[in-house]
Amino acid sequence: MEKYNVFDSTVVELDQHHSDRKGNLSVVENGSTLPFDIKRVYYLYDIPGGSSRGAHAHKELEQLIVAASGSFTVTLDDGKQKRSFFLNRPYQGLYVKPGIWRELEDFSSGAVCMVLANDIYKEEDYIRDYDVFLKYRDLI
Ligand code: TYD
After folding, report:
1. What is this structure's pTM?
2. What CATH number is attached to the domain comprising 90?
3. Distance 63 CA to ligand 1 centre (A)
4. C-alpha dihedral over 92, 93, 95, 96, to 10 degrees?
5. Residue 17 bears catalytic tag
6. Domain of 131?
7. I need a labelling partner for 124 at 20 to 30 A (CA). Which of 22, 75, 134, 136 fits?
8. Rounded distance, CA 72 to CA 6, Å?
9. Does some domain include residue 30?
10. Which helix (H) or strand (E) is 72 found in, with range?
């Protein structure tokens, strides 16, 4: 499989519908918004201050990470370079390519991290050890 670097992951602007009286609505739709079709949605919430999540890579999974509420920082790492993204808008999502190590931290109080993914949960798709990740990337 092609090995992507951190610059292949980008912030995607989601469709927004504004209403002065009723608030805002954003849409993610299969076939148009993302380079993949969504098979799973999960979200992190009630995250204690100071905790970090992630610290793993996926071999094949593609994801869109959205700060549905509040804010947090996502740091992507391809083994050579790191890139951090501060997410704080429900109408933006970070599209993460496969084979990239990610860490999520600095969650604001009440933050909700919504993740849209192109496959169901498969533990065998995870790389949870950083040295194994570097080997997977042919860097050690
Ligand atoms: P994990 O992906 O390790 O969380 P994070 O990287 O955000 O810290 O998942 C935490 C637990 O939840 C782990 O026991 C696996 C389980 N889980 C599922 O059962 N299904 C899922 O879709 C996800 C994402 C996690």
Report:
1. 0.97
2. 2.60.120.10
3. 14
4. 140
5. no
6. 6-13+39-136
7. 75
8. 18
9. no
10. strand 72-77
- The backbone torsions φ and ψ at residue 80, rounded to the nearest 5 degrees and listed phi first, read -115, -40
> What residue's CA is closest to ligand 1, atom 6?
54
Which residue out of 42, 74, 102, 112 has the highest number of ligand 1 atoms within 8 Å of its CB and is therefore the one to mutate? 42
CA 120–ligand 1 middle distance (angstroms): 11
Residue 40 CA: nearest ligand 1 atom is 22
One-letter identity of residue 101: W
Residue among 17, 18, 56, 58 flagged as catalytic? 56
* Separation in Å, CA 63 to CA 16, 88, 113, 121, 125: 20, 17, 12, 12, 13
Q: How far is the CA of 61 from the centre of ligand 1 (A)?
A: 13
